[in-house]
Design brief:
This protein is of the alpha/beta class and 132 residues long. Helices cover 36% and strands 20% of the residues. It has a 5-stranded parallel β-sheet, with helices on both faces. Strand 1, helix 1 (18-31) and strand 2 form a beta-alpha-beta unit. The radius of gyration is 14 Å and the shape is globular. It starts with a strand and ends with a strand.
């Protein structure tokens, strides 16, 4: 029986193993016939949504890995808006609203509130947390 999964990622990319472990777990879920429906980025994990992330070519590109899951599975890539704003991560709407000249969060990543995390906890079969 296929299950729906949600992941909570709290680790910044390239700082701790949490983000890479979450991405690898998400891929494994899909390979085993389950559905990775939602990934929620919280605390320093919001940095996974940076459109400016440019790792060396011989390293795993975490943001591209998340985008690939979105393209292949329709996985929601949700970013806590409060945690993102505190850390300088804004989409076009938030940049405009706060009078900033640039944005650095682009679709398919979506700034959203903690209500979406609670919704994922309630409506998915499994939820796993990846923290540093």
């Amino acid at each position: 029986m296929a299950l729906t999964y949600a992941l909570l990622v709290q680790g910044a990319p390239y700082t701790h193993q949490a983000a890479l472990s979450a991405l690898r777990f998400g891929r494994a879920v899909v390979e085993r016939g389950h559905r990775l429906k939602t990934v929620f980025f919280y605390h320093d994990g919001v940095h996974n949504a940076s459109a400016l992330m440019t790792p060396p070519q011989d390293e795993v590109h975490l943001a591209e890995g998340w985008r690939s899951l979105h393209r292949g599975q329709g996985t929601e890539l949700l970013v806590c808006v409060a945690a993102g704003l505190r850390r300088g991560l804004l989409d076009e709407g938030e940049a405009s609203r706060h009078g900033q000249i640039a944005s650095n969060v682009a679709p398919p990543f979506e700034l959203t509130g903690l209500g979406q995390l609670l919704d994922a906890m309630e409506h998915h079969d499994r939820m796993l947390t990846f923290s540093p």
